[in-house]
Amino acid sequence: MSIQTSNMNRISFLPLSSIRRPIVPVLDEDKITRMIETLSRTDPQAIDDGLPPIDVLRVRKNGKDWYFGFGGCHRFQAYERTGKQTVKCKVVPVTESMLKMYVGGSVDEMFKERSADAPPSSVTAV
Ligand SMILES: Nc1ncnc2c1ncn2[C@@H]1O[C@H](COP(=O)(O)OP(=O)(O)OP(=O)(O)O)[C@@H](O)[C@H]1O
């Protein structure tokens, strides 16, 4: 079982700004446009916004939860461009050493504090 497929049942609404995205995406603009159309067809308050949840890895370190998104680049763009503050995610808890294995190198740079970080209290599990 890979780290993506374990603990698949935790769906949370995370602040978009709390998810670090270390990989620079190559984007298909048409796909983003179609995703935005999907979002525009659903009630903004609805839990099911028409897009599947994005897999996000969560590492607990220094008493804090750190969230990393390695996929979902088109969905992230669609949410950003429609002004969404929170994103439906499938949270996969991993250890720092699992993250290192996944990244294939040092992850120290990925744990730097940023001014945009949202407080953990804004994370809502469903
Ligand atoms: N316009 C759309 N409306 C609804 N669902 C969509 C739409 N486009 C893609 N999806 C669904 O969203 C999921 C993610 O699609 P896709 O992999 O193409 O984009 P992504 O967000 O960049 O994700 P990843 O980077 O993980 O591949 C798939 O399950 C796909 O079926």
TrEMBL record:
Record's GO cellular component terms: cytoplasm
Enzyme class per UniProt: oxidoreductase
Pfam families: ParB_N
Record's protein name: Sulfiredoxin
EC numbers: 1.8.98.2
InterPro entries: ParB/Sulfiredoxin_sf, ParB_N, Sulfiredoxin
Keywords, ordered alphabetically: Antioxidant, ATP-binding, Disulfide bond, Nucleotide-binding, Oxidoreductase
PANTHER family recorded: PTHR21348, SULFIREDOXIN-1
Source organism of this protein record: Lipomyces starkeyi NRRL Y-11557
Family of this protein: Belongs to the sulfiredoxin family.
Catalytic activity entry: S-hydroxy-S-oxy-L-cysteinyl-[peroxiredoxin] + [protein]-dithiol + ATP = S-hydroxy-L-cysteinyl-[peroxiredoxin] + [protein]-disulfide + ADP + phosphate
A GO molecular-function descriptor: sulfiredoxin activity
SMART domains: ParB
Domain ParB-like N-terminal: from-to ranges: 12-107
Keyword Metal-binding: no
Coiled-coil regions listed in the entry: none
